[in-house]
Amino acid sequence: MGGEGTRMRRRGEAGEARERGEARVGGGDHVRGGEVRGNIGESCGNIGARWNEILCSLFHGERFTSRPLTGEGVMASHTFLSLLVLYLYSFHLARPIHCSVGSNGFDTTSVLKEEFSEELLLKPLPDYKVLAHFHFTSTSPPSSSNGKHHHLFPKSIAQLVKKYKIRELELSFTQGRWNYDRWGASDPLSTANGKPPGVELWALFDIPTKEEIDATWRNLTHSLSGLFCASINFLESPTSYSAPLWGFLPNNGDLRYGALPREAICTENLTPWLKLLPCRDKAGIASLLDRPSIYRGHYHSQRLKLRSDGLNGIVIEQTLSVVLQPIDRTSWSMHQLFKKSLTGKCALAKSSKVFLEIEGSLVSQNENILELVGEADMVTNDQHDHSTIYQYNVERYSEHEALDIRVNWKKLLQVSFLQAPLHASRFLMGSGNERGSIAISLQSARNSTKGLYDNSKNCFTRVVIFQVVPWYVKVYYHTLRIYVDGAIRNTKDVVEKINVTPSEDKVSPGTLEMMLQFPCGMMSAALTLDFDKGFLHIDEYPPDANQGFDIPSALVSFPDFISRRIYPDSISSPLLQSYKGRNIVKSYTEVLLVPLTTPDFSMPYNVITFTCTVLALYFGSMVNVLRRRVSEEERLAKSKDKRRPGLIPLLISKISNKVRGIKEDSANQSQSSQPILGPKVVFKVVLIALIAVLGHYFLNTS
Amino acid sequence: MIHLSTLETDHRTPTISRKMTPSATSKTTEMFQRRVKLILVLDFPMISSYTTTGLSFSFLHNRTKPKEVQRVISSQKKSRKKFFTPPRRITWRLRSVLRHPHSTSSLHRTKMADETSAAAGTSTDPGAGTESNLRTTKPGTKRLFLTVSVLISFLLGAPFLLKSTEIHRSPLPSAAISSLSDHLHSNPPSFPCHFQAIFLSPFKRSDSLLSLSIAERIKAQFSAQSCGNCKFTVSVTVDSGSSCHHEGDAASAACLWECGGGGLVDAIEGRDDQGIDELLLSAVNERTGGCAGRVYSVFVMEGRDERIVIGKHRHAWMVLKDLDDSTSVGSMIGTVFGDYFMRGGVDKGEYIPVGSDGNVVLSFSLLNSNPSDWIYDWDFQRTGEVLLGPVLEALAPVANITMESQVLYHAPKSSISYWDEKLEAYVVNTRDLPFFVNSNEWHLDTSLSASGRSKVLQFVVYVPSASECPLYIRTPEGEMSKTNAFISPMWGGVAIWNPPGCSMQSQGIHIVRDALPTQELEKIIEIFIGQLRLLFGLNSNYVKPSPKFKFLASEKGFTNWELDLLYRQHTCFNLLSSLSTLQSLSTLVESLPRMIVMDEIGKQVELSLEAANLAEKNISLGINNASALSSIRARALAEDAFFHPSIMSISYSSMEHYFAIYMPFFAPVSLHVLLAAVKEVKRYFAERSKYLAFRASKLKSS
């Protein structure tokens, strides 16, 4: 068992070395290209401006002719000649131009061009769902004009990179949770695309000082929230982002990480994301994105990842992963899934491909579980036969013949995909609004990754846990307890490395980065941390405070396990290329919902009213008591008592009054109405009205 | 004492006291005659919808209350209602009583009875008898003092309460704002300019009429509302080679033309207009050394073919047949000065599309309506920078301009075009142009480099799809637009470019991918420069008043005198806009008396006002750079204050809120205090008058 594992690792290293070699060769090429360009630039300086222009235009012309010339080749070459003449002439007329402008013509833009490619990967999942993974790549070669002049590449992203000096950035919008149990946890697709619910944003900056990075991060969140119509700007506050050193991604302190677990994702986030594609959803693979279909899925993750360096320029990967449930479990087609058909590629895409990936476990167990309808352009397996890829080139299809891949399940069976070595889940313990504890449980997924373990004493599995906790959940890090196979273990034996940034009230969240070492034979492990619940200021509660507060997902990664799939070089695809990278197996845990003591928000006003009433009562009675004349009242009461008739005679007299009154009144109705509108009454009414009018007037004018 | 009871109430005949003295009786009668008060005690023991029953009238002396009446009152108080109809009989009796107070014996008797009981009361409790009309001791002031002091302390506390619950409002100098704004509106800032006319003719005699007619012609161009007028001085110089004669006033002697330019006439011969322009520029620089940049000159020469040329710099020259007619020559010179150098041939120019921070971003976009027909790319980076660079450089004093470009796809227009048989093209009518810009599909808006409040001007090249190609704009006259372009003020401009192969309607399999030919691109950029001029409020082409006029166009797009004009207008516009912003801010603040105004806003307003004052002063002094800078600063600060986040957010605590918080306490408490004070004061005066009456009677009796 162990032998297999090491072999795999060794192979991985070899592959890595090979890759590094390739990279070196590639790098050398670039350098050479640069030198050549540099030489031309220098010569341009020597010869002078005008010659430089000629050179420029020649170079320019070369670019034109490198186009595939077909029927109108002759015409094109004619136009090229005339253009050349005109071009020279125009510069002849114009005033001398600085050499720097001219040499810009030799810039990499004329050699390397901005490129765009679109891909879709479909993958049947073991629980009869389908994963559709859209992958769009745009590249912009390194150039001085980045952020200013663009042809295919989204200008706004280039400006973002330039303005905030971003080296790497990843923004994901996710709805639902990736089911690591069933949909796989250690293949590159799930490692890269399993994202925590809500918004997750991290960025690496090319800025030296910490303060500047923080300021840039704040501006970046605002720009992104404007760009993607999301409340990413909530990550601006220092209480919501952290700077992990190695738990998330090894870095030199220039990484910032923030997550908004409660952010809801919908079309208003998708539309700006689509705007970054040259064809948007008007043509090509993106035209499959029928909103009702994709938002009906079980998992929806929309991602933007960008890298920028001097060598490759800016590369953006835009991916959208959706897990859909076909109506008919046993048979589905692309048209059924998306309610749209793929009729052609985006005219601007360099390559436009649809892949169907069948996991090795589905193929190997029985060759006849799945049946494909439709002819693939290429079928290939990866190096370890983990999966089979069917490739379809969208270029071949048109409106008359749409691309529609159909998959039929012949036999229904329960299989699961490659699992991560440990299955992580996180939950809360304790009750009440005062304290509780967080527990992370790790269950060995032995059955599927059997070969990776042995019971020898020297075998350890390393696990890295990265967890950000908001300040109002006050974690006591000294209470960390680790259980292995049910028995408590000394933390020193298990923890290899730990980095704790304690939270500071209303200033920064707590960050826990922890590297653990478990014996390979372990079946389960659990970690617990106690915490107290903090009190928030009334302004700090969100609108739906009674729902509780979300603790962002923890990230559990396994640095010893690399998920990669290497496909033959005959497939040139940025998507499959990204599978080759050293992706560490990782999984996100659930989002926790912590109920905090929530005040009654109408309370302040109630308190004011209540207290005031009590005070007013007290005050009023005090005043009355002070000005009371007890002796006089007693005397009055006495005299009243003397003269007061009995209750019954009084009642009788009242009743009799009433009876007589009716008679009299009916007789004298005409006269009786007179005093109502007497001058006094009218005067009073007028006076009150006047006071009201004046009061209103003064209130309004002041 | 009179007691008039209703028929329903039992009239009790009181017994006449033996103790009663005649003097006392006569006294009460006297008092009765002096003060008679009608007290109506109304009784409705049971209210039915249409009738009233019991009614009792007490007609009594204001100080005494017979006990039985009091009893009736107290027993009937509970059911007292406003609405009543007194029986006729009672009204009648009341009238008769009022007419003859002494006539009824029963009334007399009642009075006598009360007098007796009052006397009895006095004898039993000499201190404080409420029922008695006389008291023997001085009324106490203890309770009066208490209640009044509470009231007074409340009144004294009220200012403190108001002060402590006051909303912080930084005082805005609204008086200064409105006075400066009024001053600027009645008297728009005018910049000192010097115009000089130079006659390069040996035969011209100097004429005082000339400068007058020039000035008159310039004054005709003045319009009160317009911004950027000149406060001009005119001088006329006749430089005949040998003699030199100055007339008119110059700002300083250094600005006067230094004679000796007789050789110019010969030098001009045989040169083209560009050459003359440069020659005159050097002459002006040489001969008006002191203020070369601030003086506008017109050179007048004699010659056969009449022509007037307005140069690229700050001068013009005219060749006239006849120089002797002072009025016509003067008006012609005045036209050049007034219509062009001062007003730029336009009468509006209120809006200059410059952001409040002085930045403008020119965003150039190439829009491919349908990339499945053809895809055009452009090399804007080079051509655009070559052609637009000088323009941006020239405009640098007015605005800091940056430019960027992008290519967008799938961007159809939103207005409908028709096939026009006559023009053999698809046409868009001018009235449909407002709907041409398709804000749903044209994603032009993203520019992160436009920081703060910069203005983004969009320039769009629209490449129509095959189904609407060639596309032209039809003028209302039914002709094709020459430029095939239009502008939208403050937004930018659109130019339609029809691809060359479009008439062939080639819908081949191969998508045409091409770059916009450089020559075409240059043409389009020229159109854009024209549009930029229009957007800045200048004419794209001058309408020549007569064929003699000629305008030299600058390769920079803007001639020097046009730039001066923009500069003046921009400064003036900034100044006016900053003041209008300040004024609306102060109006807003005044209209919401409970709005919080932060100190920062107050400071910004003050600084802005200061800058505006400075700008105004510098304008009148003719310090152009400083005035432009401070006017920009004034505008930026005013906008900062107006768009301050604290104003945008809900920082308005309303009066209603204030009342809602303080009412529960202060309404009941103040009611108590007030009533208690009123009652005590009333009672004190009543008791005192009783006491005084007692003293008076005592004095009389003694």
From TrEMBL, chain A:
Residue ranges the record marks as coiled coil: none
Recorded superkingdom: Eukaryota
One annotated Gene Ontology cellular component of this protein: GPI-anchor transamidase complex
Region span, Disordered: 1-34
UniProt cross-references to Pfam families, sorted A to Z: Gpi16 (PF04113)
Segments crossing the lipid bilayer: 605-626, 681-699
Biased composition (Basic and acidic residues): 11-34
Keyword Transmembrane helix: yes
PANTHER family in the record: GPI TRANSAMIDASE COMPONENT PIG-T, GPI TRANSAMIDASE COMPONENT PIG-T-RELATED
Protein name from the UniProt record: GPI transamidase component PIG-T
Organism for this UniProt entry: Rhynchospora breviuscula
UniProtKB/TrEMBL annotation, chain B:
Biased composition (Polar residues): 14-28, 119-136
Keyword Transcription: no
Family: Belongs to the PIGS family.
GO (cellular component) term, any one: GPI-anchor transamidase complex
Keyword Ion transport found: no
Compartments reported by the entry: Endoplasmic reticulum membrane
Listed InterPro entries: PtdIno-glycan_biosynth_class_S
Pfam families: PIG-S
Protein's recorded name: GPI transamidase component PIG-S
One example of a Gene Ontology biological process annotation: GPI anchor biosynthetic process
UniProt entry keywords in alphabetical sequence: Endoplasmic reticulum, Glycoprotein, GPI-anchor biosynthesis, Membrane, Transmembrane, Transmembrane helix
Spans annotated as Disordered: 1-28, 103-136
Source species: Rhynchospora breviuscula
Pathway: Glycolipid biosynthesis; glycosylphosphatidylinositol-anchor biosynthesis
Major localization listed first in the record, in broad terms: endoplasmic reticulum
Transmembrane segments annotated in the record for this chain: 38-60, 144-162, 658-678
Membrane topology: Multi-pass membrane protein
